[in-house]
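Thread: Newbie trying to understand structure tokens

Hi all, I'm a second-year student working on a class project, and my supervisor (Dr. K.) asked me to get a predicted structure for one chain before our next meeting. I've only ever worked with sequences, so writing a 3D structure as a token string is new to me. If someone could post the tokens and maybe explain what I'm looking at, I'd be very grateful. Here's the chain:
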Amino acid sequence: MRRTRTVETSAGRTGTDRAVSDVLAFVLVFAIVIGSVMLLSMTGFQAMTDYSDGEQLRNSERAMEALTENFNDVLRYDGIDKRRGELSLREGTFVADPDGTTLEIELDTGAGTAPADASPVTLGEFAYTTGSDRIVYEGGGVVRSAENGGSVVLKRPQLACDEGNESVLITVPSVQANNGSIQSSGTLEVMMNETDRKTQIESGVDEVTVTADTNYGNAWNATFERSGWERDTAGATPKATCGESTGSDLRVVITVVETNVRY
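---
Reply by user tm_fold:
Sure, no problem. This is what the structure looks like when written as tokens:
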């Protein structure tokens, strides 16, 4: 008669116990690996995507600010009537709009209040959109806006109120462009041409008031505050004055440069 013997291991366990331990260890290791991969996919990959999107947004802001600095030479200098620049779209969208923000500029000379010669000024705009954010050139400045309606000024338009030196300097472009959009992964060439320039110079002005009919209220309020203007906080529409607190005569220079943008 053959007897069946059970082999004892060195730890006093049977041989079949070792097989169970190996299977259990394999299951545990496999579960840890799968769990780590799932955790990484839910957190790590999202973090990497958020970081990449943030870097693309910052690069877009810097690119638009550089393009703005280049284009604003047309505003600053009478002898420059054309500027050209490039913008890397990186799957973003470039769009131009001849409407955008409208500025109303009023001058109080003591004898009454009257609109400036160029008022109202329709600024027009062109914008680069990436994700839910838009980087917008308007009024010679740069604004970042989001889908929720919030906006931040990245580069201020040239609206300077210097009550200490009794002067106001307003220099803005009025951008004309075809209302069209381009989406691409490559580089877009953009050109700005001056078509007309109008300058109004006034002395003995008691007060200057600027009202912005705009979709970028937060950005324009910040522009007024940082440029020396006294902001009117009573209404929802961005509005500010210069000269109200001094009682002195102001020298006012208002320049509106009509431009055409092609791309």
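A couple of things are worth pointing out once you decode it. The chain has one domain: 50-262. The first helix runs from residue 15 to 71. Feel free to ask follow-ups in this thread.
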